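Colleagues,

For the teaching module next term, I've prepared a clean inverse folding example: a structure given as tokens, and then the sequence designed for it. I'd like students to try predicting residues themselves before seeing the answer, so please don't circulate the second half yet.
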């Protein structure tokens, strides 16, 4: 129990109120504890496991350029590292575990005709993304797991898949977005 990890029980309500604010990260939690002189009985890493009964995970990210191609490289590195330690889990990892999801964003790629321009006699690509306002409204209307792909055009259950399916999709996107 969370209250058992606090040196002073009077800090319990203060910590509980902070946990309700949302958008919590371990760093923000540690900063809050330090700024409010909350003393723990346990070390911070052990304490981090305690608030989970009061929290719900929410996937979130800040959009940035170039992340599509990065996925291919670091996913393969992670898979190879995992299978280097647990080679017997290969089938489970790639096909049987269907807990994988996709990140849902309102950012979309413009068609080539709208993102390529001539500058000083050379082809350049600028402003290749736009925000789909309809999709943004759907994402923002969700109560939980706002940025996870859902069935029924974004209004159904979370769409789960296998790692192999994600890899095949990633390869297809990588291939399809290569210049002709």
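(Answer key — instructors only)
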């Amino acid at each position: 129990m969370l209250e058992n990890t606090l040196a002073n029980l009077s800090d319990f309500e203060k910590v509980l109120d902070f946990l309700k604010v949302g958008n919590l990260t371990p760093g923000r939690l540690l900063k809050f504890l330090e700024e409010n002189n909350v003393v723990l009985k346990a070390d911070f890493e052990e304490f981090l496991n305690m608030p989970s009964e009061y929290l719900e995970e929410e996937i979130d990210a800040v959009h940035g350029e170039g992340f599509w191609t990065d996925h291919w490289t670091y996913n393969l590195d992670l898979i190879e590292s995992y299978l280097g330690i647990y080679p017997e889990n290969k089938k489970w990892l790639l096909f049987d575990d269907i807990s994988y999801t996709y990140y849902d964003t309102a950012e979309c790629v413009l068609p080539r005709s709208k993102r390529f321009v001539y500058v000083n006699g050379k082809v350049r690509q600028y402003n290749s993304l736009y925000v789909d306002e309809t999709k943004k409204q759907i994402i923002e209307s969700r109560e939980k797991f706002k940025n996870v792909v859902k069935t029924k055009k974004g209004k159904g259950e979370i769409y789960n898949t296998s790692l192999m399916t994600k890899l095949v999709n990633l390869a297809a996107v990588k291939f399809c977005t290569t210049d002709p």
